[in-house]
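Lab notebook, bench 4. Still working through the backlog of constructs that have no structural model yet. Next entry is a single chain of 698 residues. Request: give me the structure tokens for it.
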Amino acid sequence: MFKKSLLLIGLCFLCGIIQAQELKSPDGNLVLNFQLTDQGVPTYKLTYKTKDVIKESKLGFAIASGTAQLDKNFKVADVQYSSEDTAWEPIWGEQKEIRNNYNEMFVNLTQDNRMINLRFRLFNDGLGFRYEFPKQENLFTFVIKEELTEFNMAGDNKTFWIPGDYDTNEYTYTTTKITGIAGAMKEATHHVLDQFPIKTLAVQTPLMMKSDNGLYINIHEAALVDYPAMQLNVDDKKLAFSAHLVPDVFGNKGDMNTPAQTPWRTIVVSDDARNILSSRIIVNLNEPCTYEDVSWIKPTKYIGVWWQMFTGRGSWAYSDETNIKLGVTDFAKLTPNGRHAANTANVKKYIDFAAANGFDQVLVEGWNIGWEDWINPVREYLFDFVTPYPDFDVKELQRYAASKGVKVMMHHETGGSVANYERHQQDAFQFMADNGYNAVKTGYVSRIRPKGEHHDGQAMVNHYINTAKLAAKYKVMVNSHEAVRPTGLYRTYPNWLAQESARGTEFESMGGLPPEHTTILPFTRMMGGPMDYTPGIFQTDFTYYSADNHNRVRTTLVKQLAYYVTIYSPLQMAADLPENYERFPDAFQFIKDVAVDWDNTYILEAEPGDYVTIARKAKGKNEWFIGGVTDENAREAVIDFSFLPAGAKYTATIYADGKEADWEKNPQSYTIKSVPVTHKTKLKQRLAPGGGIAISVK
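Model written out:
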């Protein structure tokens, strides 16, 4: 479809006379200016349609020890330009084909007898750039003290942010101007299990902003490999952000061994919020998959023995014993607590429900010994990942699930004890292969052991990738929770289907999520890749389970349906209890029908913090699904069906909030109707406070 063109122009500059260069995006709207200051400091500047996006900002590194700093006294030795306009087909995704169209500038810098390269790629919707360290005698191994990359903003932008933290991204979002971040930080840093807030003023990426002159700006990174995750220091006086890498146990920010490269730093820009959500810069900046066989990687719709525990109707643990010890405690002699949800009989009920309703898999949490005392900051040997509780019959459930055409999904909770998990991984994946499991949900709740390491540090970044690679050898798909936020690596490792890496549905049972939360996630956390948000909660008032439980899911029932379209994932869970779906079978039909893999995606409406409306075409089918969500305010969505093929009539089944629907007062009020539509149809539909709209088109 697209032709690839490469134009290499080597520009050699004798004695570093010419120090400034310009690069334009293919459509000419974005312009990058690179230059060295009088002190030889590399800087860049970015404009969009002549409007400043990033003012002159410095580049470079502070080195911990053993070598001179990489921050100034550079000279330009060579500049090369190239361009690419190609297309590639992901194994699964939001669209069948992704265009990769950019202009590139490669800058070779020298500093005495050392070299560092900068590679800039300018797309029509943003910029990606990275540092590259070629193999060289005078820069072989070094330790980073800090990356000095700056993002100096052109104004006091409206900013959607969560606090900088080395161990968690499970915060709710705060919306302020850049100058308002400091004043709101204390309240924004609410309690989260296993948090490690940055002591200085900092926020996390992906960071979403809107300027006063109408530009939407998103800062993140792509291809995070063998490097710590990037947080952002905040200078609210200069309206500036700068890189803050997650340290290791010694406080260092990265061990480098040339040849090496950093992740790409990404800046997505548009004057239309919809273009932020449709950007494919981050995934394009990742390397293609090298797996020889990908036929076993399948988008999946699943249910699970999970929500029982959050509603208080079940327990992960088999007994109420404390001070258990693997290899010593005889679990067969423990007194069962009577609440253990992962028992053979209960799991069979979930398998029956999955088979009857077309679900692929059943996740079972709490199946393996060790849950009695698992959140333990001292004990290191938490789980062995192969030994079931006495009431969980692995072989019988494998047989039963296979007879129903369903698979059981494995769960590997590490409790943060990563060294223990790595010792057992080979046996754990072999156990999965021997017992018919082809997908695993991994978890990293609690502080990382070895002590002092962080969830988002270089060592853990490598662990997550190594887990995906090892899983691929056993043809296992991975869904990681409490891991570093994604950076498009699902292109390289497509069996790494999804991640949590943000505040998801489980927090509705622990105080709730503000209605605006899921209108912000697509612009922030989800810029890097799919999220296992675990939607589909129909019973939103927890007093239904216990008069003393006052938690509440802050959405309408219909908004939960909309999430299957607006919160993209090739791994989608129907997270509620089966009996709640049986109470609302007509609404549950949408979850049964909705696809998990797509030929195309159309962003119909979008404004961060307010609303998102998205349409998607099911992979290989003449079926489309639409989801729209709003914040705490009611609104009228305008749904343009022009994405449909011309000349044909279709039937749209509309799942809408009822006239009196409200996330707090009347969340289960909804209507369902079918209407004819064509590519000329424009539908206006009211969304209730905290509500949504879901439509299937066939």
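Notes after review: The two ends are 28 Å apart (CA to CA). The CA atoms of residues 237 and 246 lie 24 Å apart. Flag for follow-up if needed.
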